[in-house]
Amino acid sequence: MPNGHLHELFVDELRDILGAEKQLLKGLKKLADNAQSETLKMAFQEHYTQTEGQIDRLKQVFQSLGMSARGKKCKAMEGLLEEAEEIIESFEKSPVLDAALISAAQKVEHYEIASYGCLVTFAKLMEHSEAEALLAETLNEEKETDLKLTDIALSEANQPA
Ligand SMILES: [Fe+2]
């Protein structure tokens, strides 16, 4: 089984991102609660719903592999969310905090984009076409979220402090 090790890596990374998405749900609640801009608050709330969908999609990926969906604690997400928490504690609700929240959220998005990007490649290499399509769908959503956050940063930066 030449792809044996790649399969293990694939499953391990799937568990990592499943754990990460679940951890992020809590984080997104906090980000939304602390956003001053209504646009930003809504973007975080929308991404919360989207993240729930991404968790379901990951469960479908496990199912397509004939496996039960099991996540593991993602230390990277834990660290990213800890930093977001520190930011929330050090600033008052303000456009500056909003900018910091966007920065924290974009770091999360970039982690997820890297993870899903690798997972799509692994799925392609092992010809798991159903998993590949599902993962690619989420990868696109993460990229769109990242772009949307940049747009908000640019438009809200023009608001008076
Ligand atoms: Fe996600």
UniProtKB/TrEMBL annotation:
Coiled coil: none
Domain of life: Bacteria
SUPFAM superfamilies per record: Ferritin-like
One family name in Pfam for this protein: DUF892
CDD domains: YciF (cd07909)
The protein's name in its UniProt record: Ferritin-like domain-containing protein
Annotated organism of origin: Pedobacter yulinensis
